[in-house]
Protein 1
Amino acid sequence: MEFNDSFFGNISYPYCIPYNYSSKDYIKLAEEFLYSDVDIILHTFVLPLILLVGITTNCAFLFVVYRIPSMRTVVNQYLTHIAIGDLLFLITAIGKKILRFSATKNKYDSGMLWPHWMEICTHIVNYTTIFASVLIMTLVGFERFYAVCRPMRLYAATTNQKMVKFLLAVVWILSAILALTTIPGISMVSTYCVVWPDDPRFDDMPTVFDTYHHHSKAAFAYTALVQTVPFFVVMVINSVLYVKMVLTMSGRLGTMQAHDLDTQRNIDLRNKVAVMLIINGVTFFTLTFPFQFASFVMGIMTLCKPNRPSSSITSEGTKTFLQMLLYCNSLINPIIYNAANSRYRSAFLTAFGIDKLTWLRNRCVFRPREYSTPLENGNNKESPTKNTVTTTYSNSYTTVANGDILLESDTKC
């Protein structure tokens, strides 16, 4: 492709990579820099909706744990940190996409949004939350495993609050260290100088823009593998723990009659929490597995064939779909908690005062009251129910069986 130096006038870009798409022969290549119709729908409606729902659900769960003292258990401490990680991930990942979409028509223009150091910071936060979520899910799995399968064994993480805080601190520090090692995957800045086609769609396209990308193919492969290998190891560990918990809970049903009532209730409560967390864990690994598997394949293919572009391994449409699954995983956890466990639903209603409103409504408006009135001609003493008229009323007025009306002042809540 020929590049016309005079196009940029007196502006000097010594490290600029020139491209000339002014010819009609290259208009298809130039269109790859524009947002497609599907991209516009995703960035205008889908991504903002996911971000809004994710922030709402995770903040609601954090509020419930803060408001209800009985919800401050060891398991919920772990789930709280998962919710914080999901919030940070959604804000940095989706927020960056929405801001870039609103800042420039060029979907590969990173410099228009913010400087390179900001991109590195968001990259570190992104990968830290990814690593932390995987590791905290493992802590949750082990905590429930000991609660269900080894209830009589002293488990330090469930009896010592300092140990819980220590484990969470180790998880976040280790996750941050792993995220820092992936900086070479975003450390390169390339400046492009482009002559766009003479088409109205490219009128507002910047002629000079920056992209942030991996320093080398080896750095790209390392970033992909260091993200995926721990995930698969943790997935295997959690799968073993889940299977053992399910077998233990199933085997315990046959011997439940040997326990007294209080023990049965405790076991039932513990098993319900375990089932909820198993559902949550299975959902987590199901939604994140496709993205992690694709990243693993791209990392291996990059090592085996360094000259092959990564775009030829996974299409843009496939990457977008896998990212959508990853985003949905970060918003769905609190929904699972409330759908799978009545204790969490009750705490949610209590924290937001919905249970009080429901009680008041049922008490004063919708729940009927009954009273008995002796019949005027009732002389039968054998059956009192035959000598009464049952009247139902609310807090306004109600017509009774004989046509009389109870005034509002006669009702009580």
Note: The CA atoms of residues 4 and 20 lie 8 Å apart.
Protein 2
Amino acid sequence: MSRVTKIKHVLKEQEADDFDVPTGNQRIVRIFASRGNNLHEVEPDQDGEERFLVSMPVKFRKNVWIKRGDFVLVEPIEEGNKVKAEISRILTPEHIKVFEKEGVWPRKFSKKRTLEDDLDEDGLFRNTNRKFVAQSSDDDDDDDEEEEDEETSGSEDDENDDEVDCTDEASNRNVTNNEKKPATET
């Protein structure tokens, strides 16, 4: 079979409307990282389990690409300590919708769960770029009082800051004027 024919065959198989639910030994996992040599580290569907490696079968190699965050259906293999499964199907968004309707989609990967976890007590999305620090209501009252004290004492400091700014500007003008004058050699 030529390379082009093989690619067509594999893509046709992937795009088929075959929405069979996973069997007893198959699992739905999320790709965590590509480790090279057709190996991928995956995140299991159950909390508390460690990530493990899965291999890409020969029929998918150089024909189908997967990236971090994609979902795949894997079957366990017995022949390795590090590589514990082999990819049997790459799941599309249509597969995910059907699996959610059938009730076989893992709760860990559901969008509803992640939305609930990302909301804070005010109903706003939590910023994942910052550490989450829980504050009590007593701390908030103390912070408000400190801010009010800073605002009242800040008016005296503003006058002093203006004087410092004026002297800084004057010294900056002198420096720029000196830089413009040509240097004389002796």
Note: The chain has four helices and five strands.
Protein 3
Amino acid sequence: MAGLESFDMDYQRHRPSRSISEHPFEPQHDVLSTDIIRQQQRNTLLEISKKRDKSVNDSVNKCLKPTCLILQHVVSYPFIVLRRQCQLHYASVRYHIVPFSLIPVVFRLVKSQGISVLWKGFGTVLLIKGVTMAVEAILSEIFDLPKDADSINNSKSFGKHIILKCVSLSIITPFYSACLVETVQSNIASEKTAVYDVFKEGFIRLLQWNCPQKGRMLPVWIIVVPTVIYGVFKCITNILVSKSVKHMLTMYEIHKIRKVCPKSIEYSPSYSDNERLEAVSDLTASAVGDAVLFPLEIIMHRLYLQGTRTIIDNLDTGISVMPILTGYVGPLDCLVTTVEKEGRLGLFKGFGALILQTALIGMLYKFVKITLVKVVDSYSTELQSSSVNTQNNLNNQMSTPEQSRMELADIRPIMRSTSFMM
């Protein structure tokens, strides 16, 4: 062929071939190094996400315990006032067992007397709770009795704890009676009392422990019996329900964690998790105890106010008042008379206020928890953004922008799946 006569076929046939190792550029090793770096970046992002979620949960849990205390002792107080006034109205036509009948009456009551009508006696109630805690602490130190339910380990310590409750309730009963008067008496038909009046009336009734009955007012030793029974049953109910609810919540946490991370075998709640679980279980136990012991609470409160010449608001209308004029001989007589004259549903007067209280506390707790999670999560995300941007800059140096966006989109669902939300 023309032009190919000088082509040395022998040389081309025996020319040594160049191996891949002779090339200065090694693309296979570079790809392998890039994959390792990407995997390290992926693991780093996952670790950052886990730490952030743990930080969010710890911060939210620390805020939820005081929130539960505020809900239990402050937000629920107006409903406690309404409930007690319904319980004491022995001649009422409306029993307010469901919350719907109570709402228009409360509207008229607030319209005529102002919002303070729902907060009367609030300071006195907190003061008496503080005195109760002080009495229990003193008795616990003197007689070596367990004060907290967490310190109960066996039946002996449980018995000592019940004895402590019985003694402290017996001492505080006269002050409870005087405090109840300030909680339910009408603002428009009663004189305003000072804080020391509660202690004055309480000490007078305490010193007259064995005195015979004067007029309609019952001796202290008679009203101590339902108070101690109510307090002991409330304590036992709170312990049983609280421990049961906490156990169920812990099992639910384990189920959620195993659903996200199937390889997780052991789970031990942190200190902040325990605080949150205890706060929620205490709220639940308080609501269950109030519902179960509602009839006994009515009997106890009616015996407290007998003979005190207290005038309460009439919650049949919300614009009038009525005096408390009863003549019970004791707890059993109060129970029998209430069932005969008011029916069995008379033992559940004002139960609608308890339903409203429980529903409102549950909704507020859920709202506060969701709000705290969003606020703390957004703040933590801002702190994390700098670390993520650093990892993205390194990733952009090793890959194209399209690959970086694809990998980050692939990692984000995993990051959110490791969030142990409550």
Note: The two ends are 85 Å apart (CA to CA).
